[in-house]
DNA sequence: GTCACCCCATACATCTGGCT
DNA sequence: AGCCAGATGTATGGGGTGAC
């Protein structure tokens, strides 16, 4: 069976529909408000209205059927007790239907998006392929040279082959290829055998496949795996919870285009970089009271839920609640790509800034119930640990792992699947990392409190000089490579996977790593 | 007790605009 | 012309809520 199925999703697109019926509607140049106004006008026309309703009505039953049909039971899977939710992708339906239609031993070759091996929503299909079929090849292209015209150049797609029956122990794979001709030599002369058992250990939640390009990649991943995954809740040490704050569209009623009294800035991903803040002027501001009341409402809801689920009868006291934006917090950009100079870009934000959903945030304060009492503002992680964590996440070593998973978004589940040592102040390797990262972060007065909390005098202990900062960053990266027990060869390999990073930076980082081989405990 | 509807958290065959 | 960094709209599962 050989097929190149459609890659569309079963979902209405209002702008696409109304574009057909209006000279004014364009797909991406209109704001939501302009579009809604135009949509209302168009719907006054009864003919347009009927067509629109007919269009909308074609989705509900298709959707319901695909979700309920027994032959499509692998479209969704359970991750951490929750069913994965995602769009109905035609490519996903085709994969499952191909598996259904094959006779035992029958073979299938199919051209589909890379989501099959990366997306959370395709976990069920991966399990189907790994457990009830033998995957015989996963050859992955990046569309950089426009193999498919009209498809975005950064889009990735795969040629997947499998045979029905049995199960997969390992399969040959190649990633980020650009030439169709290379398919001819795969898997005989190129590609790597990926063991399913390793995939499961590396991504226990999602069973997503990392883009290993050589044996040393597998060796490094194996080595890093000895540390617990960030999403694993471990008693007696720090843990991380992720969240989003405001949605660019759904919460746009809160956004003002001018600063003013009582207003706080909306801080977007482009406004920070690794260990730095304040790149460029904000575009929106929010009235603190309005924004606060929205956030408190959500928080009260969560607290009530906790109370309902417990045997406690308590009044929720919103005035007790501290909100995340009032604290220093970890933040990282959602939109990124593995082909960018760097993929994971995060920092610690100072208080009194709000963020849109394209900035993923640490959930600092939450409420919980202990000993029949509601405890407000519980925290999972202190300032030193928070700085340690961002230092590790921003390192070349972790970024290298991110780049083997990320396509265009740094989703929560990628972060939760990172192996990260949960070091604390009692570990000798902890403070040298925290101290350096704090010097990089605490460079303006807003960070004075954070500086004081982690052992600096004030932001004046921070480092502003570009050369000194580069040196600190190199040392951090070197220390973190040692933290994972990486060898010289392994770390050099990791650094070589960043083609857009300045060579001087790479050289300084490697030098810093080598320096610590001989000075293990130097502070 | 059941159903219809709403809210929340999350994901994404894209598209635009700035920069070099 | 190519790279990079978002902006945006909408569906999903899942849980809550209120009407009947």
From TrEMBL:
Gene3D superfamilies hit by this protein: Vaccinia Virus protein VP39
GO biological process: DNA modification; methylation
Keyword Repeat: no
Enzyme class: transferase
GO molecular function: site-specific DNA-methyltransferase (adenine-specific) activity
InterPro entries xrefs: MethylTrfase_TaqI-like_dom (IPR011639), N4_N6_ade-DNA_methylase (IPR050953), SAM-dependent_MTases_sf (IPR029063)
SUPFAM superfamilies hit by this protein: S-adenosyl-L-methionine-dependent methyltransferases
Domain of life: Bacteria
EC number: 2.1.1.72
Domain Type II methyltransferase M.TaqI-like: 84-148
Catalytic activity: a 2'-deoxyadenosine in DNA + S-adenosyl-L-methionine = an N(6)-methyl-2'-deoxyadenosine in DNA + S-adenosyl-L-homocysteine + H(+)
Pfam families: Eco57I
Entry keyword set: Methyltransferase, S-adenosyl-L-methionine, Transferase
UniProt-recorded name of the protein: site-specific DNA-methyltransferase (adenine-specific)
Species in which this protein is naturally found: Chromatium okenii
């Amino acid at each position: 069976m050989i097929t190149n199925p459609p890659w569309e999703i079963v979902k209405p697109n209002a702008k696409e529909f109304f574009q057909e019926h209006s000279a004014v509607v364009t797909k991406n140049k209109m704001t939501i408000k302009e579009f809604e106004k135009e949509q209302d006008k168009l719907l006054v026309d009864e003919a347009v209205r009927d067509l629109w309703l007919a269009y909308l009505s074609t989705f509900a039953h298709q959707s319901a059927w695909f979700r309920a049909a027994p032959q499509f039971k692998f479209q969704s899977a359970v991750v951490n007790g929750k069913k994965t939710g995602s769009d109905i992708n035609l490519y996903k339906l085709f994969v499952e239907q191909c598996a259904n239609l094959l006779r035992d031993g029958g073979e299938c070759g199919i051209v589909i998006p890379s989501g099959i091996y990366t997306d959370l929503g395709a976990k069920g299909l991966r399990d189907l392929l790994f457990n009830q079929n033998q995957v015989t090849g996963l050859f992955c292209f990046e569309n950089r040279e426009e193999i498919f015209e009209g498809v975005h150049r950064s889009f990735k797609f795969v040629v997947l082959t499998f045979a029905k029956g049995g199960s997969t122990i390992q399969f040959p794979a190649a990633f980020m290829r650009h030439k169709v001709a290379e398919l001819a030599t795969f898997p005989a002369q190129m590609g790597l055998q990926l063991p399913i058992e390793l995939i499961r250990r590396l991504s226990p939640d999602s069973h997503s496949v990392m883009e290993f390009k050589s044996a040393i990649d597998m060796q490094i991943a194996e080595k890093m795996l000895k540390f617990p995954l960030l999403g694993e809740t471990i008693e007696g040490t720090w843990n991380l919870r992720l969240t989003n704050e405001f949605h660019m569209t759904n919460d746009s009623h809160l956004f003002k285009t001018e600063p003013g009294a009582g207003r706080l800035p909306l801080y977007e991903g482009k406004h920070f970089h690794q260990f730095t803040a304040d790149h460029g002027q904000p575009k929106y501001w929010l009235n603190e009271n309005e924004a606060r009341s929205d956030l408190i409402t959500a928080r009260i809801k969560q607290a009530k839920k906790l109370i309902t689920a417990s045997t406690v009868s308590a009044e929720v006291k919103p005035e007790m609640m501290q909100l995340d934006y009032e604290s220093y917090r970890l933040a990282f950009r959602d939109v990124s790509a593995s082909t960018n100079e760097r993929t994971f870009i995060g920092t610690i934000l100072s208080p009194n800034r709000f963020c849109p959903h394209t900035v993923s945030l640490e959930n600092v304060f939450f409420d919980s119930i202990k000993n029949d009492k509601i405890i407000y503002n519980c925290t999972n992680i202190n300032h030193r640990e928070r700085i340690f964590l961002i230092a590790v996440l921003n390192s070349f070593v972790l970024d290298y792992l991110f780049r083997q998973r990320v396509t265009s978004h740094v989703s929560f589940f990628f972060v939760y699947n990172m192996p990260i040592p949960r070091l604390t102040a009692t570990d000798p390797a902890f403070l040298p990392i925290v101290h350096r990262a704090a010097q990089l972060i605490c460079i303006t007065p807003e960070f004075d409190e954070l500086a004081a909390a982690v052992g600096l005098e004030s932001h004046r202990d921070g480092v502003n000089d570009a050369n000194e900062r580069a040196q600190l960053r190199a040392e951090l990266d070197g220390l973190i490579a040692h933290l994972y027990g990486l060898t010289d060869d392994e770390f050099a390999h990791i650094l070589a996977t960043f083609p857009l990073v300045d060579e001087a930076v790479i050289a300084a980082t490697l030098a810093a790593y080598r320096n610590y081989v001989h000075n293990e405990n130097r502070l």
